[in-house]
Amino acid sequence: MGGAGNEEAGQARVRAAAHDSDLLALPAGYAVHEYRIDHVLGSGGFGITYLAHDTHLDCPVAIKEYLPRDTAGRGPDLSVRPHSTAGAKSFAWGLDRFLQECRALASFHHPGIVRVLRYFAANDTAYMVMEYESGEPLDRWLASREPIDAGTLQRIVRPLLDGLEAIHNAGFLHRDIKPRNIYMRADGSPVLLDFGSARRVGGQGQEQLLTAVVTPGFAPAEQYQPDGSQGPWSDLYSLAGVMYWLVTGHLPTESLARLREDPMPAAAVIGRADLYGKAMLRAIDWALTPDENLRPRRVADFRRACLPSTGQPAAEAADSPAVLPAPGSSFSEGCSFIGAVLFSDVPAAPAPADAAAEAAHKERRQLLATLVSRAVAGVPANSRLAANTREGCAVCYVGDPEDALRTASLLGAAASERGLALHIGINLGPVRVQPDPGGRSRLLGDGVATAFRVMRFAEPGQVLVSAAYVDLIAQLRRSAATCFTALGQRRDAHDRVHDLYLYVGTAHALASHPVTANHTATTASDLTPAVVDDAERLLTRHIGPMARILVRKTLPRVGGRDELHRLLAEMIPDPAARSAFLTAATHRWQQPSASLRPDSAPHSGSPAPAVAAAPLPVTAADPAAGSGLGEADCERIGRILARHIGPLARILLRREAARAADLDSLCRALASQIDSPEQREHFLREAGIGRGPGS
After folding, report:
1. What is the pairing mode between strands 116-122 and 80-82?
2. Among positive and negative, which fits the CA dihedral 68, 70, 76, 80?
3. pLDDT tens digits, residue range 618-643?
């Protein structure tokens, strides 16, 4: 198979590890309880796996010995001892965890998971006895069968996903999925082996000391990092790496090398869509996203994306409408954020409806979809998702939340011109993007469901908004009180109470107010660029990309640090998240000499990125329009910037490219939008711009 360079390096590491394990391994013929050691099957960071013989039952078994090479070794009497007194505590903790996890794994009875028969303590360590699966590793099995077809791939992947789901539901992670740990039985069914690296989800403390050994190419970046956030998404990355290798013939690039400028070709680009299907290839790329926050969170999410439905009915409730991302959208499936959601629909057909009435209603729905598409055309494609569902049309905004009101005004006016009365509802709340089995995406979350329910209360021609959305707009505009009329509370069919407002403003009332470039210099001395940067980072943790816009819109109205924190906190819908934001923001800057701390202070001479930025214009213009820049240059710079700041990169590129005289000035203007000084410098280097003032 391909990927010769990576493969040779990986084999070298395997040979080195095998040599180390031979030195530490129990000798052939050694008896531990009723088991006689035959030879070493493999080794990992936590121990050694042997082929052994059960002398009582006269059958082969596989035995995993707990022996973390970083903290322990083998003594002359073959017992396992910590290397040092300092490592003894970590070793003891890991040993206890190993035994606990043996007990849990022994309860699994799944055809896709190797069966754990028993466990015991001996030689001052612990042993896990497993069924010995005759067959051959996936890489050896595949050598005589490549390329595999879609049916074979599905027969391999489905049992593994089902087995992983059982592991995850029990609160464990495998953490070492790779071709060598997948055995193919004689009947062609797969079984996942080697649970010696398995750990409980959400473990803290010393567990982090046991995560140093990984398999390059198949281990996600978070397994390399002491504070990496590991979860089901980590195992899905590894399994997707195996699938990538199966469908492309290339080993995945090591994850750490993909964090900056990803050199690995996407499966959707080099894989055979005619053989495996576009949905399968896209799902592999999704699970292989270097950023763990952008991967599928659960096995079920990934299964729906890559495997055809097995007959389960697709969810068609209003709470989860199907979404069609706009062309060029950089939304990542599986991401979660706070979004402004607009839901619109035409009046329902009278009941009982005849064929003519149903046809007329369908025609009105089609017209609505057209009008929505036109109304959102001015909103950058990578800051919204538009949907045409069975319950109406929905648009989710992750950039400027006021875009929802602008869309409502434009949509209402266009519908009125065509004699079409609409129901429109707007809400602010949590949204999650998730794929469906058909390769499309879905919008999930209370943010979407509540927008739908608010819409259901609207009379034809009305725009109703939730209290959460009104509260946010009130923080952004002093004139908000004149734009909304309180309607009081309404109770929906799910017995939920909604505080509703009628929008009575106009598109003209939503004209943007510029943000003064030197605002901090004219207000309070404690409102420094570092304070603003820090507030934006903290806010992003709780609401997502919208934070950048909200900070910029808030700055002209604040007189100091405390007021900035207070106003931003009020924009967080969830009370617990609001409290957490305030606690983190105030605690950080209440410390002595906080402004001089190296992790918060900007480099000397660096600009104030969060302060100096003007509001983002709503435009669909070509990024290179009005400048001497080439389209290829803009596209390249946009891709680099997106790796640092996400979906807003394209918006910022459009704005700055219209102003920039050359590539150098464009890159330096864009660099000022990157929070971290280190990442700012990295962006300039990637863009081919030397370090200069403010970089």
Report:
1. unpaired
2. negative
3. 233 344 444 457 777 887 888 788 77
From 442, 426, 434, select the one nearest 317 (Cα to Cα): 442
Q: Give the least confident one: 450-464, 473-487, 545-559, 589-603.
A: 589-603
Tell me what pLDDT residue 179 has.
Answer: 92
Q: Note the pTM of the prediction, 2 decimals.
A: 0.45
Tell me how far apart the terminal alpha carbons of the chain are, to the nearest angstrom: 43
Return the CATH fold of 322-510. Answer: Alpha-Beta Plaits (3.30.70)
Q: Which of 88, 160, 165 is nearest to 125 (CA)?
A: 88
- The mean pLDDT of the chain is 76
Q: How far is CA 225 from CA 212, 251, 256, 496, in A?
A: 8, 22, 10, 43
CATH architecture of 136-306: Orthogonal Bundle (1.10)
Q: State the DSSP H helix or E strand holding residue 118, giving kind and residue range, or none if neither.
A: strand 116-122
Q: What one-character DSSP code corresponds to residue 271?
A: S
Report domain extents, the chain.
4-131, 136-306, 322-510, 519-609, 621-687
How do residues 282-301 score in pLDDT, each as one tens digit?
A: 899 999 998 888 888 899 88
Query: How far is 590 from 594, CA to CA, in rounded Å?
Result: 7
CATH code linked to domain 4-131: 3.30.200.20
Q: Give, to the nearest 10 degrees, the angle between helix 649-659 and helix 663-671.
A: 140
pLDDT above 50 for 1: no
- The per-residue DSSP string of 172-234 comes to EE----SGGGEEE-TTS-EEE---TT-EETT--GGGGGG-----TTTS-GGGTSTT---SHHH
Cα–Cα distance measured from residue 379 to residue 405, given in angstroms and rounded to the nearest whole number: 12
Closest to 608 (Cα-Cα) out of 553, 660, 677:
677
Residue with more model confidence, 203 or 309: 309
